[in-house]
Structures are given as structure tokens and as C-alpha cells.
Description:
Elements: H1 3-14, E1 18-24, H2 33-42, E2 48-51, H3 62-73, H4 78-89, E3 97-101, H5 103-109, H6 111-121, E4 125-128, H7 137-145, E5 149-150, E6 152-154, H8 160-169, E7 174-177, H9 190-201, E8 208-211, H10 217-224, E9 229-232, H11 234-242, H12 247-272
Parallel strand pairs: 1-2, 1-9, 2-3, 3-4, 4-5, 6-7, 7-8, 8-9
Helix pairs in contact: 2-4, 2-12, 4-6, 5-6, 6-7, 10-12, 11-12
Amino acid sequence: MSRIQTRFRALREAGRSALVPYVTAGDPDPDFTVPLMHRMVAAGADLIELGVPFSDPMADGPVIQAACERALAHRVNLRQVLAMVARFREDDPDTPVVLMGYLNPVEVMGYETFAQEAARAGVDGVLTVDLPLEEGEDLWAALDAHGLDPIFLLAPTTDDERARRVAARARGFLYYVSLKGVTGAAHLDLAAVRERIQDLRRLTDLPLGVGFGIRGAEDAAHVAAFADAAVVGSALVRRIEEHLGHRDAALAAIEDLLRAMRHAMDARTQESGP
């Protein structure tokens, strides 16, 4: 059983939803990422999504695009991201880490090499935004061989038949994109998201996370009432942007937001009951 599966099982037994922060590796500089990962865990993060910077992040809004640009200005690449995970693992052997990004850097490294190096570094799952289910068997096979969970996105436009096929190939959890658009866009239609999550539960036993639009503690708490995980990205990355050049302030702002989210999520799930 992977670290991701173990963590979700423990959370389910405790009646809690996972808090999953996303940050871009190397933003605003390479030395910031590992201390940030540890601070996020201390603030209540259950899993970490670590973005691999890419020049054309098509699913991401302007906040995360700018984060990628800041990281790429320091020439942060996939191998450096794996080295960051390895350094994180020196002091945290338990918190699951998912790499989220685009296919090109993985393809350049080579699927087998990537999977081997990612597993060695301590990565637990991989989400490649722009790789369709039908075209990914070579990568999925490499991930399988090294015990890495392939994580998939489901969109509001994903019909039940396709959702079943995606769920059959996925491991770890499924990431439901809560809106039609890029990261950080629009306001959550919580009623529609709740209804779709209920529908998806009839199709799969995998944990279901919700992201793309969670901005604050109230959003996270609402999502925690019906989903297995709340994924927050742009709201955290925006705090890095707001405190460029002020490392301690950026860390404190992110920690404060995550603590508020964790508190609100736990309070909401306790109110909802089993």
C-alpha cells in the first residue's frame, strides 16, 4: 500500500478530509521549497502537490503561470525538483508527495528513468495534466513498476463512462476539477460540485479530492463536508507573490492560511458526523 493510500485510509478512519496544498517547486527560488513543504505539514497539510515548473502550463491561471516563470528564471528543472523531494524525505518519511505537471519534462527524461528516479527520491504519485488516458500506457507501466500512483483529473464535462475508465486506471485518489477553467478561476458552485462528487462515488471507491477554486477556509470547510480532500493552490502561490523578497513573511502567510483551513475543515466534518 502506497503512502497516499495509507494516508487516506487513516483519514477516513478518523472521519477527516485531507488538506492538500499545491506549490510550484523552485518558486520564488530553489532554496525556499523544502522549508515551505515542512511548514505546510506543520500547519496541517496531509499530502503535498509539488508543481514541476513548465514554460506553457496550459491548465494554470496567471498566478501559477507567474510562479512557473519565477522558478524557471532560476533554471529549476525536473531533476532539481526530485532532489527537493529527496531532501524533504530526510526529515519527513511519511507525508505523501505528488508531482503535478506536464508531460514534456518527463518525456525528455524518459519514462523509465523518471519513474525510477522519482521513486528513489520519495515521490508517491504523479499527475500529468496533458497526457490523455488513451495515450499514457507506457508512462503508467513505468509508474506501476516502481510503485508510484498515477493520479488523474476528472472535469465537470467528464461523463460517467469515461470516469469509470479513468478510475479503473487510477490509484491513490482522483482529483475533481471543480470548474470549467484554469486554476484560480471563478467562484465555486458548491451545490453542483457536491452533486457530481456524489455521482462519482457510485462509480469508484477511490478517494475524491476537489480543487481549482478553493480560496479560503470557508471554501475548504464546505468541500470537506462531502469530499475526501480539498486541494488549494493559487491562494497559496498568491501569498508567495505578495511577499517576494520576504521569505519569513511568505512562510507565515501560507502557514496561517493552511491552519485556518485545517481548523475549519475539522470543525465542519465534526458537525457533519460520520
